[in-house]
């Protein structure tokens, strides 16, 4: 289905010692995104599969409650699979962090590169989790999260 996206985004820096962003809300038109780091998380060293890195929610206004909501990261897709990404270290491009978006009542979408929520709820929640067990090198891993409403043209 052809569609148009209205989006909101946030740049979050994940450091080797802490995720230092707390509860900031961003809005663009009908979308509001909230992203929270997963506590005092150290990510240098071994990182277990599906370890929660951050949790978030995306909310829509009444006028767009029946539209699909799309959430994605502005990052390299891992194998072209929607909702799975490879984040490159800021200080060393050889440092990689594999993550995925995880949420109930959603499905991955290769066209947008993210996950799509359908239905008529005002607020949807999701997690950014480690995609597989990994050994993470100390670095800064920037994550640019975006969300939008898919509407018919």
From TrEMBL:
CDD domains: AfaD-like (cd18776). InterPro entries: Adhesion_dom_sf, AfaD, Dr_adhesin_sf. Keywords: Signal. Residues 1-27 form the signal peptide. Pfam families: AfaD. Gene3D superfamilies: Dr adhesin. The keyword Zinc does not apply. This is Fimbrial assembly protein.
């Amino acid at each position: 289905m052809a569609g148009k996206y209205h989006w909101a985004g946030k740049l979050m820096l994940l450091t080797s010692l802490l995720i230092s962003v707390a509860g900031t809300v961003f809005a663009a038109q009908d979308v509001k995104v909230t992203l929270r780091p997963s506590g005092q998380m150290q990510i240098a060293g071994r990182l277990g599969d599906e370890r929660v890195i951050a949790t978030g929610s995306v909310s829509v206004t009444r006028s767009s409650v029946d539209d699909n909501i799309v959430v994605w990261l502005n990052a390299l897709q891992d194998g072209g699979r929607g909702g799975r990404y490879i984040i490159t270290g800021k200080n060393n491009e050889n440092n990689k962090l594999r993550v995925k978006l995880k949420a109930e009542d959603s499905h991955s979408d290769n066209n947008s590169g993210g996950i799509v929520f359908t239905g008529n709820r005002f607020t949807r929640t999701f997690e950014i989790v480690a995609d597989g067990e990994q050994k993470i090198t100390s670095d800064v891993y920037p994550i640019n999260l975006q969300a939008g409403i898919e509407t018919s043209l």
